[in-house]
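Quiz preparation item.
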């Protein structure tokens, strides 16, 4: 009888441990890893203002529980690529918006993720 109770306790402990590990991984995916911002991203507001050779980029989310982290800017040929990851708001990522000032000397295009957000040919909106 005691062996059966020990086995049942071990099975319950193993199941609870597995549930905790799965929950931890799910939380890390939502709050730390997130998803990349790109053309398929919904609820994303992006505004660009050109001032001389500086492009001011303002990005905001329309979702109240979303934030951005891991913002990186890389230059490849004549284009700038701004990469970010969308996560849920936490102590690691608190803001649902970010501002960047980009020096665009020699740059013809700026992408947010894989979405083209600015080109040199762009006429200012009036």
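Solution:
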């Amino acid at each position: 009888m005691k062996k059966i109770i020990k086995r049942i306790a071990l099975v319950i402990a193993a199941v609870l441990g597995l549930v905790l590990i799965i929950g931890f991984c799910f939380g890390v995916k939502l709050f730390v890893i997130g998803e990349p911002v790109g053309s398929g991203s919904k609820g994303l507001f992006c505004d660009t203002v050109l001032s001389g050779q500086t492009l001011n980029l303002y990005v905001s989310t329309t979702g109240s529980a979303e934030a951005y982290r891991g913002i990186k800017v890389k230059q490849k040929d004549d284009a700038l690529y701004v990469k970010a990851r969308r996560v849920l708001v936490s102590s690691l990522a608190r803001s649902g918006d970010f501002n960047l000032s980009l020096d665009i000397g020699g740059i013809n295009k700026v992408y947010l993720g894989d979405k083209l957000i600015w080109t040199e040919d762009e006429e200012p909106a009036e």
